[in-house]
Amino acid sequence: MAVKLPPILSRLTSYTHAHLRIAFLGQEIQINLMSVFVTLLAVFVVSRVMKLMKGIRDTNYIPGLRVPFQPLAFPGALIPTTWWNPGMYFMWKWRSWMYKRYGENVSIVPFISGVPGIFTSNLDVARQVSAGGHKSAFVKPQTASRALLLWGMNLVAADGEQWRKHRRIMGPAFSNKLYQQVWIETAETYREMISAERWADKKVVDIPVIQTLTFKLALLIIGRCGFGFSFDWSAPPTAPDGSMSVQEALRVVADSYMISTMTPKWVQNLPFKKLQTIKTAHDQLMAFMQEQVIERKADIRSRSSGKTAKTGGASDAFTMLVEANEEESGKFQLDDEELIGNVFIMLFAGHETTAHTLAATLGFLGLYQDIQDEVVQQIIDVVGWDREPTYEDYGKLDKVLAVFYEALRMFPAGYILIREATEDTVITVPNPPGQEGSTTIPIPKGVQVMVDMVGVQYNPRYFDEPEKYKPSRWYGVTNESEAFSAFSIGPRACIGRKFATTEAVCFLTLLLRDWGVKSVLRDGETKEQWRNRVLDANIVLTLGVTDVPATFTRRERPT
Q: Do 302 and 309 meet the contact criterion of CB atoms below 8 Å apart?
């Protein structure tokens, strides 16, 4: 006979059984969740191993780096360069050992995210993948041009037939007429700088950061010769009516380019003073440039009909670009957004390159006085102590050009060229130095080949003692020579090359004739230690040099 429990004990027993069942069920759920997690982890690991093996196969088993993320894409580009993540700076920081260990072509295969690629420091490979043309199997991927499209499609971002259309219009704007104007405006800006900075009565000037001068110089020259604006060294940041001046808007936009391209629109609209200043500058400059396009088109049409135009046949690049565009018709004509996009890419890429390279040049010359003395002697031989240098002197000042070239070689502004295979193809890779012949490497569709311009400029195949600052490499080399590759190579080489070198040669000629440049070393510091401490790379839109200090001492002129 069953024993009947009291009601209280019966309820307690039922509760205990239910609690045990729930506890058991919870344990079962925990066990199931753990099984799911382990299964998902195993699937993830297997998928990453398969991705890694496919990437190694697609890059033809070329030796190289096996990393979590593609170094130039999110999130790898945001993580500092470390032993496990190449990051944005690996081409600079690892330049002394990476190609020595793996050869001139290095595969980088990510196993978590990103496409596999081959990084090359070989110019023959670079020419094969960057030549372009309708027969080329390589194109610039859209992801590589995203940061260049803030103001509209342009020559640097375009590819294929679209690039040829932009090049057809841009070419006529870069002429001797423009370069003569660059020389004149650079000389005038140099004199303004001396006056505005109150150097006229000083014998010694300490410059904590040379870029504060060179960026302002480059911005003013771009403003005057690129846009045709009457910018002034000491102009206030506000217009007479209290609004932001065009010159100040141009400076703000140039300084904040990466914020504008890398942050979402909703972030840029947040009510923070800096973000609002950037937005105001961007909106004001865009509206102003749209008005300028309309005005210049009207002026050009007035000239063609025999009427008096406001610009009076201006020689700035913007006007000549609009003029060349007006002479075209149909499919070759650029729209207003493309016109503005081309002028602005010249501003951002051009003024960064010139400013940083001038700073690096003066840093090297301050360190190596013997090279500086040699350059100054040529300046005196060509121009003398008192004559005003002219554009006609440009070709005779090859040593001045050479010191700028060598600084750009060591800090190549366009540090990477990215191309992606649109179909299964091959590249021909020269064998290592000392070995005859070449090797053919299959490149499957979708694989990227990246030309590491830092690697190219430090490749001992092309330069003896590549880590050494030796401007003599470029003595006698013409401005158009392909021996100098830091402005890129082939038909897509930098269209603003002579714009930049004309500005640089004029400025350096005037500055070095008047002032001696000296680097200030710390107590007990060697030249090599100073160089390693100060002359380091800084990557934004382009590769430049970190802040460079110097002391300028007025030269004693012979009586």
A: yes
- Exposed/middle/buried for residue 6 (C-beta within 10 Å: 0-12, 13-18, 19+): exposed
Count of CA atoms in the C-beta half-sphere (13 A) of 220: 25
Q: Which amino acid is at 518?
A: K
Residues 6+ apart with CB under 8 A from 385: 513, 557, 558
Report the distance separating Cα 470 and Cα 455, nearest Å. Answer: 17
Which bin fits 60, alpha (ψ -120 to 50), beta or left (φ > 0)? left
Smallest CA-to-CA distance from 363 within 204, 527, 219 is with 527
Output the CA–CA distances (angstroms, integers) from residue 357 to 262, 361, 502, 529, in the order listed.
Answer: 25, 6, 13, 20
494 is in an annotated binding site: yes
The beta strands (E) that lie in 402-479 are given as 416-421, 425-430, 438-443, 448-452
Query: What are the pLDDT digits (tens) for 224-277?
Result: 988 888 888 987 776 677 778 877 887 888 778 767 776 778 888 888 888 899
Residue 14 in this model has a pLDDT that exceeds 60:
no
Give dist(CA 422, CA 135) in Å, integer.
11
Spatial contact of 238 and 383, defined as CB atoms under 8 Å apart: no
Share of the chain above pLDDT 90, in %: 54
Here the tokens at position 524 are 């007990």
**CA–CA gap between residue 405 and residue 141 (Å, rounded):** 29
Cα gap 97→73, rounded to integer Å: 23
Q: How far apart are CA 462 and CA 122, in angstroms?
A: 9
HSE-up of residue 269 (Cα within 13 Å, Cβ side) = 3
Determine the straight-line distance between the first and last CA of the chain, rounded to whole angstroms: 134
Give the burial class of 443: count Cβ atoms within 10 A of its Cβ; 0-12 exposed, 13-18 middle, 19 or more buried.
buried
The pair phi, psi for residue 67, each rounded to 5°, is -130, 160
CA neighbor of 155 nearest in space, from 165, 143, 140, 144: 165
d(CA 218, CA 494): 17
Residue 389 has pLDDT above 80, yes or no: yes
Work out the mean pLDDT of the chain and round it to a whole number. Answer: 87
Q: For residue 34, what are its two tokens?
A: 């753990």
**DSSP 3-state of 162:** helix
CA distance 379 to 507: 12
Whole-prediction pTM: 0.88
Q: Which domains does the chain have, with CATH numbers?
A: 146-377+505-554 (1.10.630.10)
Contact at 8 Å (CB) between 517 and 179?
A: no
In the DSSP assignment, the letter for residue 390 is -
Q: What is the pLDDT of residues 167-179, one digit of tens each?
A: 888 888 888 999 9
- 64-69 and 105-113 strand pairing: parallel
User: Is there a cis peptide before residue 75, judged by omega within 30 degrees of 0?
Assistant: yes
Q: Which is it for strands 425-430 and 138-139: parallel, antiparallel or unpaired? A: unpaired
